[in-house]
Amino acid sequence: MLDIKFIIENPETVKEGLAKKGYTKEQIDIDGLITLHKDVNKLKTSTQTLAEEKNKLSNSIKSASNEDRPAIIAKSKEIGEELKKEQELLAEEQKKYDNIMWRMPNLPCPESPVGPDESGNVVIRRVGEPTKFDFTPKDHVELIELNDWSELERITKVSGARTYAIKNELSRLELAMHLMVLDKLTEHGFTTITVPSLSKQKPLYGMGYLPFSQDEVYYMPADDLYLSGTAELVLNSLRADEILSENDLPVLYAGFSPCFRREAGAAGKDTRGLVRVHQFLKTEQFVICKNDIAESEKWHKTLLAISEEVLQDLELPYQVLEICTGDMGAPKYRQYDLEAWTPSQNCYRETHSCSNITEWQARRTNLRYRDNKDGKVKFVHTLNNTGIATPRILVPFIENHQQSDYTVRIPTKLQPYMNGKKFIGKNAQNKEA
RNA sequence: GGAGAGAUGGCAGAGUGGUCGAAUGCGGUUGACUCGAAAUCAAUUGUACUCUUCACGGGGUACCCAGGGUUCGAAUCCCUGUCUCUCCGCCA
């Protein structure tokens, strides 16, 4: 959500930002919005004037004489009728106005590359070289089958397409990665927090999932609850409506939760294996900081650095992508993605997504803080980034670390979380000895 | 799932139809006292919107969980929802 005062004072900047994000004037009419806002304000003023008159009359009734009283009550009733009509009109216009405001995307960062879609994204650096093999590498599904690590086919009979069941050492690996990342985030000052995957509707608006990505989210009408696609959803609303002290900032959460996504727009994409599933586990980085673009940009870089560290600890070759204006979602001001090298697909595939939302979400959740310098109440900035998401990351992990005997090498940093094992797989026992 | 109780300012807690944005206490802020601190004393202490002012400021409207309703007038009465607590049942 944007500040209407900013829109009124900088209509051209706003129009330009919306155009960069690919919104047409037909989709969001800024001039119309400004006019509507003026109309709403006029109605507010007239409504308030009527309410004032009515309040004065009501207050005078108690002390009025018995003769005067009926006349005052009659007059008050009359104004009451008028007021009711005015209020209804106001509510109508206000609804139109709110509707536009809730559908207004965030403006992109001036430094973000401008482009229509993912083709406009810019690789800003590559770390590590694509893995070279002196044998013919297998893809992750083959390796999983050779090592008895999954029930990929059977589970779909039980739970449907795009679900996974992994077993033996691989299921431990999945949890080990989360523990490793949670430890890392704790070192960086984050509060670990496990959060529900269930959410009411309001937080979905707060985060921006609604009204923008309705098709992506599971809804359970029997209980009027939604299944969360990310811990960001819950963390973003956890402190909603609060006024924090600046001294409490930044708030750093490392949120762990099962995540659910319908993948409605992804029919036919990534149907093989563990890349795109309906339910997965994610450790999420979430930051609440003060309303200062330099400060939140600093945190944005820090979050990115932490997830790069994760990929480095996992010894995966990766690239950092700066996402262009047309490809970033509505809530975002600036976005980086991390993509890990995936040998079977001969390309980099997304593992992390790191976003600065500025105050756009805070306006929706009404999350504010009191500034120490000027004592004013301001909206916070929020940021989020993947800590680690499984099973997707297992794909590049298994494929990059595979050996000719189908075992998979465990990088040093991860070994403590895998009972010290250096390799996993059916043939690993021979090697350890 | 069954039975009951409740939701008031940062916190605790009064207030059951008429200047109630709301007593009191705690906390916070500022000042006095002090070398300093504590204690004490004094003052102050929500948010949003709107009108007005160059500005300091001033006026007004709304908000006592949320949404409806009754009434000239609602924190207070009625309905619905949400949440919390206690007991029973079930359960990891």
Question: How would you portray this structure in words?
Answer:
This protein is an alpha+beta fold. 40% of the residues lie in helices and 20% in strands. It binds one RNA strand of 92 nucleotides through residues 41, 44-45, 47-49, 51-52, 54-55, 57-59, 61-63, 69, 72-77, 79-80, 200, 243, 368, 377.
Question: What's the topology here?
Answer:
Layout (H helix, E strand, L loop, with lengths): L3 H6 L1 H10 L9 H32 L7 H34 L19 E6 L12 H7 L5 H8 L9 H19 L3 E4 L3 E2 L1 H7 L1 H4 L5 E3 L4 E3 L3 H8 L4 E3 L5 E10 L18 E11 L3 H21 L4 E5 L11 E9 L4 E12 L1 H6 L2 E3 L6 E3 L1 E10 L3 H7 L7 E2 L13 E2 L3 H5 L1
Parallel strand pairs: 2-7, 6-12
Antiparallel strand pairs: 1-9, 3-5, 4-5, 7-8, 8-14, 9-10, 10-11, 11-14, 12-13, 15-16
Helix pairs in contact: 3-4, 8-10
The chain binds one RNA strand of 92 nucleotides through helix 3 and helix 4.
